[in-house]
Amino acid sequence: MISKDRRYRAFECRADANEAAVDGYAAVFDTPEVMYEFDGVKYSEVIERGAFDEAQMGDVVMNFNHGGKPVARTKNGTLQLMVDDHGLKVRADLSSTAESRALYDEIKAGLIDKMSFAFTVNKEAYNKDTRTRSIQGIKRVFDVAAVDFPAYESTAITARSYFEAEAERERAEARHALELAKAKYFYMGVN
User: Residue 138: which residues within 8 A CB-CB, separation 6 or more?
Assistant: First the structure.
């Protein structure tokens, strides 16, 4: 089940020619990504260096499009997640089941070349000036998934609800400031 409190991000996936392994980066640090745009105003999100320092990643699965049977898992050693200077690196052995071998063949053929990951946030900040949400701490990584379209349909729902709320808050603040300015002008004009 995909939950509205999980976030999904994309990364590129590469097949290793010598074995049934794929690797890539589930997250790249300090790289803002536009998650929502309203009336020409862009709202971005960035994963900060150190966001994975306390993340729970002991039982993470890899699957296709965030569903179906797992094709690799950290608990049995077929999935490895490593944080390095660039971001969250993923390496998966897809040789153990018919589903995993089929997915490997699709990645190797270039039919599937993107991935995404699902996570929850435990620490974040928002910069009103740059309209950027900074993910400072990730509580848990649930899965990494090979995806056919990295358009983040599930993410878009979560990200849009967050950023739509932020855009509405900004519009309400602007309306309030305008009302105060009008009231001040009216008050000064009457006296």
Answer: 47, 51, 52, 55, 119, 120, 121, 122
d(CA 183, CA 167): 24
> pTM for the whole thing?
0.70
- Residue 2 domain flag: no
181 lies in some domain:
yes
Could you tell me if residue 148 is inside a domain? Answer: yes
Structure-token pair, residue 69: 């049977």
More confident residue, 13 or 34: 34
Cα torsion angle, 179, 182, 184, 187, sign: negative
Q: Cβ–Cβ contacts within 10 Å for residue 61, how many? A: 21
5 pLDDT tier (thresholds 50, 70, 90): low
Domain of residue 130 covers 7-190
Interval 124-157: pLDDT, tens: 999 999 999 999 999 999 988 887 765 333 222 2
φ/ψ (deg, to 5) at 119: -155, 165
What is the number of domains present in the chain? 1
- The answer to whether residue 62 sits within a structural domain is yes
Q: Cβ(23)–Cβ(108) under 8 Å?
A: no
